[in-house]
Specification:
Keywords: Kinase, TPR repeat, Transferase. Pfam families: Esterase. TPR repeats lie at residues 328-361. GO terms for molecular function: kinase activity. Helices cover 49% and strands 17% of the residues. It has 382 residues and is of the alpha/beta class. The protein has two domains: 2-252, Rossmann fold (3-Layer(aba) Sandwich), CATH 3.40.50.1820; 257-381, Serine Threonine Protein Phosphatase 5, Tetratricopeptide repeat (Alpha Horseshoe), CATH 1.25.40.10. Helix 2 (58-74) crosses helix 8 (235-248), helix 11 (294-307) packs antiparallel against helix 12 and helix 14 (344-355) runs antiparallel to helix 15.
Length: 382
C-alpha cells in the first residue's frame, strides 16, 4: 500500500504543478523559457511561504531536483520548495550565458547580461508573483556550475546556498573562492561534487579548490565536497542532488532516533529549550516559521518522562498552546505533569478540559476521559 501511495504521489500531484512560460528579458534582449515547479500545497495554504531554487541547465536538471525535493518533503525532511528552471537548450547557449573576460575573470558580454537577468529580472519577478521565503539556492552543472560562483562576489550574496556539480572553474577561482569565503560575513551553504570518472581537468581544479577552501576557516560557511566512486561526469549528478539538499536542509528534519538518543535524552533538563532552539534555527537559517511537529512534541515528552524532569511538561504545554491553540495538546501536557507529580485533582481537571477540545495526533476525547476517570478515582480514594 505504501508503494502505491508513493507512486500516486509522484505521478499525480507533483507534476500537475509544473508549468513552462516565456520570459521576455530586457537584459538578454530575447525571450527565455523558464520552468516553474510549485509545491502541491501552494494553492491549499495561502499564507505559507517557500524557499526558491534557481536551476541553471533547467532543461535537464529540473526533473531530478524536483523529484528529490518532493520525496524529501513527503517525509518532512525538507521544506516544500519553489523551483525555477532556466532552460538552456543548446551547449552553445549555455556557454554564451556563462561567458567571462579572460583578463579580469568577470562575466562579460552575454555572460554579464545573463548575470543581470538572474539577479535583476528573474528573481524580482518570481518574488513578486509567488509567496517566497527569504532563502535562495542556485545550482548548475559543469559550465554553469563554474558560472554560478560569480554571485559570491557581490557585496552581499543574493543566494544563501550554492550547488556546484562537476564545475568547470573559471581560471584562478580555486584561490578566489577561498579568499571570498574567508571575508564573508553572511551564513552560506556551499556544496560541490565530482565523480572519480569525471573529466581530468575538472577533478584537478575542484580538488585544488577543496584543499584551499579548508584553509578559509570561516564558521559561517557550511561546506561539503563529495567525490563519488564509480561515477562519471554525468552520473555523479544523480548521486549529488540528494546529498546537497540534505546538507542545506539538515536543520529542517524532524527529530530522529539518533538525535533523540545522542542529544536529547541525555539532557538532565532543558529538553524544551532544545525544542525551541531547533525551531528557532529553522527560522533563522531558512526564513521559515513552521509549527512544531507532533512527532517532535512526543520525542521531547518522552525525554522529559525518562529523566523525570516533570516541570518541563509545563513549558511543553506552553509551546503546545502557541502552536496548536484549539487542540487538547496543551492541557494534556499539563495533566501529565500534575499526574506525574502526584496531584490527581489538578490532573483530572486538566484532562477533563482537554476532552472538550479538538483531538490531535493520537490524543482522543476517549483517552482524555479515561485519564480523567483514573485521576478521579485516585482523588476519591484519598
Amino acid at each position: 500500500m505504501k508503494q502505491l501511495l508513493l507512486f500516486l504521489f509522484f505521478s499525480i500531484p507533483v507534476f500537475s504543478q509544473k508549468t513552462t512560460e516565456t520570459f521576455v528579458s530586457t537584459q538578454l534582449g530575447e525571450s527565455r523559457q523558464i520552468t516553474i515547479g510549485l509545491p502541491d500545497s501552494y494553492e491549499k495554504n495561502p499564507n505559507k511561504k517557500y524557499p526558491i531554487l534557481v536551476l541553471l541547465d533547467g532543461d535537464y536538471l529540473f526533473d531530478p531536483f524536483y523529484g528529490a525535493l518532493n520525496y524529501g518533503a513527503y517525509w518532512e525532511d525538507m521544506p516544500e520548495t519553489i523551483i525555477v528552471g532556466i532552460n538552456q537548450n543548446t551547449n552553445e547557449e549555455r556557454i554564451d550565458d556563462s561567458n567571462y573576460d579572460d583578463g579580469n575573470g568577470l562575466p562579460s558580454g552575454k555572460g554579464a547580461n545573463f548575470f543581470a537577468f538572474i539577479g535583476g529580472e528573474l528573481l524580482p519577478y518570481i518574488e513578486k508573483k509567488y509567496r517566497v521565503a527569504p532563502f535562495r539556492i542556485i545550482a548548475g552543472h559543469d559550465t554553469t556550475a563554474g558560472y554560478l560562483n560569480f554571485f559570491l562576489f557581490k557585496d552581499y550574496s543574493v543566494f544563501n546556498a550554492y550547488i556546484s556539480l562537476s564545475p568547470e572553474l573559471v581560471p584562478e577561482m580555486d584561490t578566489r573562492i577561498p579568499e571570498r569565503f574567508a571575508a564573508l560575513k553572511q551564513p552560506l551553504f556551499y556544496y560541490q561534487s565530482t565523480g572519480d570518472g569525471d573529466i581530468k581537468d575538472i577533478l584537478e581544479s575542484v580538488n585544488k579548490l577543496d584543499t584551499n577552501i579548508k584553509t578559509a576557516n570561516n564558521p559561517l560557511i557550511n561546506y561539503k565536497y563529495d567525490s563519488f566512486k564509480g561515477a562519471s561526469h554525468y552520473s555523479s549528478v544523480l548521486h549529488s542532488i540528494p546529498n546537497a539538499l540534505y546538507q542545506i536542509f539538515d536543520c529542517y528534519k524532524p527529530i530522529s532516533m539518533t538525535e533523540f538518543s545522542g542529544k536529547i535524552v541525555i539532557l538532565p533538563n532543558d529538553q524544551t529549550k532544545y525544542l525551541t532552539d531547533k525551531y528557532d534555527l529553522i527560522t533563522k537559517t531558512l526564513g521559515l516559521k513552521i509549527p512544531v511537529r507532533l512527532s517532535d512534541f512526543k520525542a521531547i515528552e518522552a525525554a522529559i518522562l525518562k529523566n523525570k524532569s516533570y516541570s518541563e511538561l509545563e513549558k511543553l504545554a506552553e509551546i503546545a498552546g502557541k502552536n496548536y491553540p484549539k487542540s487538547m495538546l496543551s492541557d494534556y501536557e499539563l495533566g501529565l505533569m500534575y499526574e506525574k507529580n502526584g496531584d490527581a485533582k489538578r490532573a483530572a481537571k486538566s484532562y477533563q478540559k482537554a476532552s472538550q477540545l479538538e483531538e490531535i495526533g493520537d490524543l482522543t476525547k476517549d483517552m482524555m476521559m479515561e485519564k480523567f476517570d483514573e485521576m478521579q478515582s485516585l482523588t476519591t480514594k484519598k
